[in-house]
Design brief:
Layout lengths: L2 E2 L3 H20 L5 E6 L4 H17 L2 E6 L6 H13 L5 E4 L9 H5 L13 H9 L7 H12 L8 E5 L6 H10 L3 E5 L6 H5 L4 E4 L17 E4 L3 E2 L5 E2 L4 H4 L5 E2 L6 H21 L1
The chain binds nicotinamide-adenine-dinucleotide (NAD).
């Protein structure tokens, strides 16, 4: 039997705590405030921004969407991020992707103050993580580790293979897993033989954004599989990177898409907003 590592309970527990802390901040004067900076007209991004706004609203977090337009220049985006970084009324900043053509994420995200970089995207935040120093960690990576812990999956000394090396998911996740004393392998699009590095792993995390990339033949008997992928399915729904039909029955556990990593990611992002607000008021 393959267990389903759902994220809903964990997300609800995190959210209940954030809601209380947000209410305390509001009672003391000001609600925690998140600025969502958008410079695209991408429907998936619009959907995500909308879901973040709803999540914030449910928790008593004020959320403002700032639309810079799909043709905004790097200078315009940096100026907005710098202004919000200096603005005491803004506790937290999230820059949405995709960015306009020719605008590089690192170039603009370095304008986000580390104390407000709740999704840990700036080069400074990523460097703090790599150095083992305090800072905000990318929420999706943190969600993978929290989901594993919540379901009692041990990390220390275990072989973990992460499929994907983006700055948003794969790389920071590898750092977090190292901090948990796991032995980490990172696979990517140039990996010559994916199955050779995934089948020996105790835990496989799929974060490549490729439907059906990880199948039963990539998974060792009794492994734990976390599916980070959120790909658009032909029917308009979302589907992960793991081919569930061939992995179920072989793996000990698999996280579902949707309902696994996703809700925990959103809950952790909102917790980061509350933490940023608490620190700025302290
Ligand atoms: P990305 O496109 O930036 O990076 C994909 C990574 O996968 C790259 O490092 C690439 O080398 C690797 N890769 C691609 N094809 C591969 C292959 N055939 N074999 C091995 N590795 C391969 O994507 P991302 O931003 O890291 O996101 C990855 C997935 O996670 C996407 O589906 C995205 O939608 C999803 N995601 C989910 C959440 C969530 O909250 N659940 C959050 C962020 C991203």
């Amino acid at each position: 039997d393959t267990a389903s590592l759902t994220g809903k309970e964990l997300a609800a527990a995190i959210n209940a705590d954030s809601k209380e802390r947000a209410a305390a901040l509001t009672a003391a004067g000001t609600a925690p405030t998140l600025a969502l900076i958008v410079a695209n007209d991408d429907p998936a991004s619009a959907w995500y921004v909308n879901s973040l706004r709803k999540a914030a609203e449910r928790l008593g977090i004020a959320c403002e969407r700032i639309d810079l337009g799909a043709d905004a220049s790097a200078e315009t985006i940096r100026a907005e991020l710098s202004a919000r970084s200096a603005d005491p009324a803004t506790d937290a900043i999230m820059l949405q992707t995709p960015l306009p053509a020719g605008v590089n994420l690192d170039d603009v995200s370095s304008a986000i103050a580390a104390a407000k970089d709740v999704d840990g995207v700036s080069p400074l935040s990523l460097g703090l993580l790599a150095s083992g120093l305090d800072g905000f960690v990318p929420a999706t990576s943190e969600a993978v580790v929290e989901l594993l812990k919540h379901h009692g999956v041990a990390l220390q000394g275990r072989l973990v293979t992460v499929v994907g090396r983006s700055n948003i998911v794969g790389k920071p996740l590898a750092q977090l897993l190292l901090a948990e004393n796991a032995t980490v392998t990172v696979a990517h699009s140039r990996t010559a033989d994916l199955a050779a590095v995934t089948t020996p792993a105790d835990i496989v995390v799929a974060a490549a954004g490729r439907i059906g990339l990880v199948t039963g033949k990539h998974i060792g008997d009794g492994a734990v599989v976390i599916d980070v992928g959120t790909n658009e399915a032909a029917d308009g729904g979302i589907v992960g990177d793991v081919e569930a039909t061939s992995v179920i029955g072989k793996a000990a556990a698999l996280s579902p898409v949707p309902g696994g990593v996703g809700p925990v990611t959103t809950a952790l992002l909102m917790r980061h907003v509350v933490v940023a607000a608490e620190k700025s008021r302290a």
